[in-house]
Design goal:
The complex is a heterodimer. By secondary structure, chain A is α+β, with helices and mostly antiparallel strands. Chain A has 7 helices and 19 strands. The mean pLDDT of chain B is 89. Classes of the chains: A alpha+beta, B mainly alpha.
Chain lengths: 373, 82
């Protein structure tokens, strides 16, 4: 059972995607685990043949419990029986989320998500009471269903996970905060030209430039990229956690791997995929556990600036407010320029304000040369 | 394609992007970003989906016209007629 967050203690296995005898390779999705952040696809990190599944569907087991035996892997310890927290009956695996809207039953007003959930869970919508506008049945009105069922996003559970992680962060991490205003004229001009020459699927959002510039800056200032677990452990790899708001409340910050080496186009593709999956609760285990720092971008509808709370055991979160046109001193003149306020929340156990300032200035400098990102 | 058919296509794509929202009662004049809590990524995904579904070219500078249902219908009807 992988650890999928700083405060995760146990997870419930809801679906096996392999069976004994199947061959697997690194990165294959082998199981689905229900956590406070939704149903997570669990990847395997060893190649070989699946010898035995050790945890039954519906069982809740502590983090670190071996889920399966894979031939060729060093898993002698895994042969021990799994210490179940609560064994539950094993129903048939639930269907995967259906994105195509289904027809609305006559006389019942429900959101598409609620209809989908109710269908998955075998619940008659007419038996539910809606709490949405005008009595519309929303997804939160649909009961969670039977043990072992794949639930997708549960915003109440997600709120508990956020509360635990953020409270821990504020208890343990001595944050310091910096901000820096950055001119986006060059980035905007480059982006307009780039996107103007391409069809919609190939276009890029400013957020991709923010993630790439932040990742490259972390190469130079390594004390913002890694984990604090008794002592700072820098990470050689740079995996940006991208904060994604869930409509209706909730937040996840799954990782995109190797963001310092991805092209902007590849990064944009991965961001689009990640946002879509995060919002229906279909993330992968490595995405929830691998982020080495976090980028939070509020987008065009956000406020001018944000001061993030570090997601432990990470040691930094870089925030981007809403880009906006503001008066700016250019030489001896005042000009209206598109600009953004970048912020850094840093862990004072690991870094100091001076180095943080250099990191923000590096990001600003990188954004002046978008063609090189 | 009629106006009603186009409206149904757009609403279906919105619900594909955000299955948890109810787009059926969307005000044609309302900004989708405000009414449905769509961010720039959602708007981009909507533009991509409509580009693929209707096979129309939607320039980057025109994408802003798709931020209301009514604006999207008017714009796409013109593009389909070209």
């Amino acid at each position: 059972m992988p650890s999928l967050g700083a405060d995760m203690e146990a997870g419930t296995l809801v679906e096996w995607l392999v069976k004994p005898g199947d061959m697997v390779k690194r990165g294959d999705i082998v199981a689905v685990v229900e956590t406070e952040k939704g149903a997570i696809d669990v990847e395997i990190f060893e190649a070989g043949k699946v010898d035995e599944l050790l945890v039954a569907i519906g069982a809740t087991v502590p983090v670190g419990t071996p889920l399966a035996l894979v031939g060729g892997a060093k898993l002698e310890e895994a042969a021990k029986p799994a210490p179940e927290v609560s064994a539950k009956p094993a129903p048939a695996p639930a269907a995967k989320p259906e994105l195509v809207p289904t027809p609305m039953p006559s006389g019942v007003r429900a959101t598409p998500a609620a209809r989908r959930l109710a269908k998955e869970r075998g619940i008659d919508l007419s038996t539910l009471k809606g709490t949405g506008p005008g009595g519309v049945i929303e997804s939160r009105d649909v009961p969670a269903g039977k043990p072992g069922e794949r639930r997708g996003l549960d915003l109440d559970e997600m709120r508990k996970a956020i509360a635990a992680a953020m409270a821990r962060s504020k208890r343990e991490i001595p944050h310091y905060y910096l901000q820096h205003v950055v001119d986006l004229s060059a980035a905007e001009a480059w982006l307009n030209k780039f996107n103007g020459e391409r069809d919609p699927p190939q276009r890029i959002l400013m957020a991709a430039l923010f993630v790439k510039a932040s990742s490259l800056a972390n190469r130079k200032y390594a004390e913002f990229n890694g984990f604090y677990e008794g002592a700072f452990k820098p990470s050689h790899a740079i995996h940006a956690g991208v904060a994604i708001a869930i409509r209706g409340g909730g937040l996840v910050s799954p990782a995109i791997h190797d963001t310092d080496t991805l092209s902007l186009s590849d990064l944009m593709t991965k961001m689009r995929d990640l946002v879509a999956r995060a919002r229906v609760g279909r993330l992968r285990s490595s995405e929830l556990s691998d982020a080495t720092f976090t980028v939070s971008s509020l987008g065009e509808r956000g406020v001018d600036q944000l001061y993030g709370i570090i997601y432990p055991p990470q040691v930094a979160i870089i925030g981007f407010g809403a880009p906006s046109r503001r008066p700016s001193a250019v030489g001896d003149k005042i000009e209206v320029r598109n600009s953004v306020t970048i912020t850094l929340s840093g862990d004072h156990r690991v870094s100091d304000g001076h180095r943080g300032a250099l990191l923000l200035r590096e990001i600003a400098e990188l954004l002046q040369h978008p063609e090189a990102l | 394609m009629t106006k009603d058919e186009l409206r149904a296509v757009i609403l279906a794509e919105i619900e594909n992007i955000a299955p948890e929202v109810d787009a059926s009662s969307l005000d044609p004049k309302a900004d989708i970003r405000e009414a449905l809590d769509f961010d720039s990524m959602d708007v981009m995904n909507l533009v991509i989906a409509l580009h693929k579904k209707l096979r129309v070219d939607i320039s980057d500078s025109d994408a802003i016209k798709l931020t209301t249902l009514g604006g999207a219908i008017d714009y796409l009807l013109k593009k389909l007629a070209e």
